[in-house]
Write a structure and sequence with these properties.
Elements lengths: L7 H9 L1 H7 E4 L2 E4 L14 E7 L5 H10 L3 E4 L6 H9 L7 E5 L5 H17 L3 E7 L2 H11 L11 H11 L1 H6 L2 E4 L5 H12 L8 E8 L10 E4 L20 H8 L4 H22 L3 E8 L5 H15 L3 E6 L6
Parallel strand pairs: 3-5, 3-6, 4-5, 6-7, 8-10, 8-11, 9-10
Antiparallel strand pairs: 1-2
Length: about 325
């Protein structure tokens, strides 16, 4: 999952919009900036949907972009952030031929990041529906990927790969915090990342809110892409019941044991109610994705049983829900 430069299709896309773009931009200290603040008289219904793909170098931005391209999105790689509003406007003028645009951006300097922030504010002011996908990965995985292709990190300069990773992570901190969807690719291969992107974007109609409920084991580490984390270690561990130890939380006897413990059903009811309130707030704020991590010691019994019940509650509330058991089977 290494990054690549702009491809022939991307250059052709930029050239195709060149004539119209020149009418809408002017040169300002060498950079193209928009001179018109309206949407060119284009009806709101004509404004294309926008996805911004960003994240750590080596985390799989190009793979994610290729997946969207295969799903019919118009993909532009390495577009300067200042030109994103122009790209959206050109798409709006396409009379529906470009209904969905994905832009791949990386942040390699403070001025570049400031330009991205200004472009996003401009898009918000225009009422453009946009989402940000952030590709995350652990330092160890990124170092391994850069070493495998024998390439330096774009920000390492005269230092080490880990120095470049640390610098990029700091620059991207704010963008990661504002992202609608964070995908941790540390343990994913190319096909698994494509499957995740396909699951999120392949639907013909985008749901109001999509949730991933993930069980995990604390002894294997916290999921870095979790929005909400809850701890099931306040419940007795079925691991210490010999007849239940070999099974998982998917087993009916294990699940019955977990939910017959004091506080288990009460926690499920109250947390489901809390999630109902959070989901309503996410919808109001336009957030479409949430990852709820449910942990226990090994990620085998309590967290699995609770994740299944929470997912069922969310689905009953109209939230499209996927259940992932990250650590089940690792023991």
């Amino acid at each position: 999952m290494t990054e690549h430069g702009t491809g022939p299709g991307d250059r052709a896309a930029q050239q195709a919009g060149g004539a119209e773009a020149r009418a809408d931009v002017r040169q300002d200290n060498g950079a193209q900036v928009k001179t018109r603040k309206d949407n060119g008289g284009v009806p709101e219904a004509g404004i294309p949907e926008l996805v911004i793909i960003s994240g750590m170098s080596g985390a799989g931005r190009s793979t994610a972009a290729k997946c969207l391209e295969d799903l019919g999105w118009f993909v532009v790689d390495n577009l300067p952030p200042a030109l994103i509003p122009t790209m959206v406007e050109l798409g709006a003028r396409s009379q529906g031929n470009v209904a969905r645009i994905a832009v791949v951006v990386d942040v390699r300097g403070r001025r570049f990041f400031d330009a991205l922030r200004e472009s996003l504010a401009d898009l918000d002011a225009r009422g453009v529906t946009r989402r940000t996908v952030f590709l995350e990965s652990s330092d160890e995985a990124l170092v391994r990927r850069f070493e495998s292709v024998r390439r330096p990190h774009p920000l390492q300069g005269d230092g080490r790969i880990v120095d470049g990773i640390a610098a990029e992570r700091e620059l991207l901190r704010e963008l990661r915090g504002d992202a609608d969807l964070v995908i941790d690719t540390s343990g994913l291969n190319v096909h698994e990342l494509r499957a995740k992107m396909h699951a999120q974007f392949a639907g013909e109609e985008e749901p109001e809110l999509r949730a991933t409920v993930m069980s995990f084991g604390f002894k294997y580490g916290l999921p870095v892409d979790a929005d909400l984390v809850v701890d099931m270690r306040f419940l007795p561990n079925p691991h210490w019941v010999p007849e239940l130890r070999p099974y998982t939380g998917l087993n009916e006897e294990v699940a019955s044991y977990v939910f017959n413990q004091p506080g288990a059903k009460e926690f499920l009811d109250r947390y489901a109610e809390l999630l109902r309130m959070i989901a309503a707030g996410y919808r109001r704020e336009g957030k479409r994705y949430v990852t709820i991590a449910v942990g226990c010691t090994g990620g085998k019994h309590r967290s699995v049983a609770m994740s299944e019940k929470l997912a069922a509650r969310l689905a009953a509330e109209g939230v499209e829900t996927v259940v992932v058991h990250r650590d089940m089977g690792r023991e």
